[in-house]
Amino acid sequence: MTITVPGKAIALVSGGLDSAVSAAVAKSQGFILHALTVRYGQRHSIELNSAKNVCDSIGVSEHHIFNLDLRCFGGSALTDDYDVPKGSKPSSESIPVTYVPARNTIFLSLALAWADSLGARDIFIGVSSVDYSGYPDCRPEFISSFEKTANLGTRAVNDKKKFKIHTPVLSLTKAETVKLGLSLGVDFGLTWSCYDPTDDGLPCGSCESCQLRAKGFLGADVLDPLLLRL
Phi/psi zone of residue 52: left (φ > 0), alpha (ψ -120 to 50 degrees), beta? Predict the structure, then answer.
């Protein structure tokens, strides 16, 4: 019987809850992880520090922080001078102003380029289409389409082994994601979710991302360790 040993994989790690769990899943499956974080001109650098801490905790082979300033395009409350909505109930029925145009397309393209150069064929991304903000680039249809494109436009077109975009938390609720992460030993105290932290560097507690995070820990019936550290 032939046993296939996982090789190299790229994990997109933002510093958030979902990407931390996705990277932990990849690690648990035996992949040699190369982590990619993008400094894209987001409102704060806290999540970049969180990404580094998450990668150190999980034990990746290497971690690159790629500089790509999307503020030149704007069009999002995360990269432009728009107010981050506060207190509104998270909904997947409309695309909120916190959507960064084509962000996951860009991030996956960067991960794909690195994977192709390494000879890796597995890419992990922490997107969810259940408890999420309604971003169009988090839907399974988008992931499937990108995977097809990856295999048409790279060396993989001539290889037997094709690219696979892994989305371990795509169909999970936030509570299920928290439970999965805990089972894998993820230290959620190292992660960060808030879009618009206070001047003291604390989560605002009322933006959509904070609300979804709180929903996850409440549903999992555990305390958020990040709040205990602050």
Answer: alpha
Q: How far apart are CA 32 and CA 11, in angstroms?
A: 10
Q: Give the tens place of pLDDT for each residue, 134-167.
A: 899 999 999 999 999 999 999 999 988 999 999 9
C-alpha span between 106 and 110 (Å, rounded): 6
The amino acid at residue 164 is: K
CATH number of the structural domain spanning residue 31: 3.40.50.620
What is the C-alpha to C-alpha distance for residues 206 and 214, in angstroms, rounded to an integer?
10
Residue 123 structural domain: 8-221
Nearest CA-CA partner of 104 in 63, 64, 133: 133
Residue 227 is assigned to a structural domain of this protein: no
**pLDDT digits 0-9 by tens, 80-98:** 998 999 986 645 557 899 9
List alpha helices for the chain, DSSP H. 17-28, 46-58, 103-118, 140-152, 174-183, 208-220, 225-229
Report the predicted TM-score, pTM, of the whole model to 2 decimal places. 0.94
